[in-house]
Design brief:
The protein is of the alpha+beta class. The chain is built from 8 helices and 19 strands. Strands 6, 7, 8, 9, 10, 13, 14, 15, 16, 17 and 18 form an 11-stranded antiparallel β-sheet that branches. Strands 2-1-3-4 form a 4-stranded parallel β-sheet, sandwiched between helices. It has a two-stranded antiparallel sheet with strand order 5-19.
């Protein structure tokens, strides 16, 4: 089997070295070529012939690999080494590296949709979510040095951000149906079950293939959402959860995030349109 190991050695605690990962794969009968996802050689490495792509790292590394894969017909396996590991948890991929490698069934796949969002900046793919408001602002805070090392710390930080968030005026259009509101604290257009600090924003934990979930947190839901963040699996989410095939956002003066990157856009009117691009990834899933 020809495999490519795409690894972020700084993910999580950084305690999984190149040598350890390659040795674990070799013991399972997999000879892998190694590529550091931060090296700048990832796109070229993924163009090499392979029977399996292995993404070892956090959500940022896994999403980067997915976005750069030229052939989504090649199976992808995830070794979740990050903090939230939202993509892996959304597909019940949990356990140690040894446990996961031993359980791999190279004939068992689950299709993973990939989203695409278009705006004044052009068109970009996304795996996890596109969002406005509190969560993009939290990502901007982290990029300025306010780091969180654990999921619980991330939820606490998001709760603090929601406490201070000012409302945004947003026009939301889902499959042609328009919702206008001037009291939005956050909107997340999600492609997988978990996002941010491992938050279950999809109602029921799943969505129909080819659709996106939409979570809308309004000002009147601020306190209830902050309480929900302490135990997000303990009950129904206190905010609106929708889904659709085409999601359009129109707003001004609020940061936008695409997966783990957030951008402060000019205060002029902005518009973004999100949908599924139609070419799913063949993701190895546990039995």
């Amino acid at each position: 089997m020809r495999a490519i190991l795409c690894h972020n050695p700084k993910s999580g605690d950084g305690d999984h070295s190149k040598t350890e990962l390659l040795d674990t794969l070799k013991h399972a009968g997999i000879e892998a070529r190694y590529c550091n996802v931060k090296s700048g050689d990832l796109a070229a490495a993924l163009r090499e012939p392979a029977d399996l792509i292995i993404a070892a790292g956090g959500d940022g590394a896994v999403a980067t690999v997915i976005k750069l894969m030229p052939d989504r017909g090649v199976p992808l396996a995830i070794l979740p080494l990050g903090t939230a590991n939202n993509i892996a948890h959304s597909h019940k991929i949990t356990g140690t590296v040894n446990e996961l490698v031993k359980r791999w069934d190279h004939t068992r796949f689950s299709p993973l949709d990939v989203g695409v969002v278009a705006g004044s900046w052009g068109e970009r793919p996304f795996v996890e979510a596109v969002g406005l408001g509190a969560l993009p602002q939290l990502i901007l805070n982290k990029s300025n040095g306010e780091q969180t090392a654990k999921v619980g710390e991330g939820r606490d930080a998001l709760s603090d951000e929601l406490a201070e968030s000012e409302a945004i005026e947003v026009t939301l259009v889902i499959d042609g149906a328009t919702i206008r509101t001037d009291d939005v604290l956050a909107i997340e257009v999600v492609n997988i079950a978990y996002t941010g600090p491992r938050l279950p924003l999809l109602e029921g934990g799943e969505k129909p293939r080819g659709t996106l979930g939409v979570a809308v947190i309004r000002r009147k839901e601020r306190l209830a959402t902050m309480s929900w963040l302490n135990a997000p699996h303990s009950g129904r989410a206190p905010f609106t959860q929708l889904n659709g095939r085409r999601v359009e956002l129109a707003w001004r003066d609020a940061p936008l995030r695409i997966d783990d990157e957030a951008t402060e856009l000019p205060p002029s009117p902005q518009r973004a349109v999100a949908s599924i691009d139609g070419r799913s990834v063949k993701l190895l899933v546990p039995p």
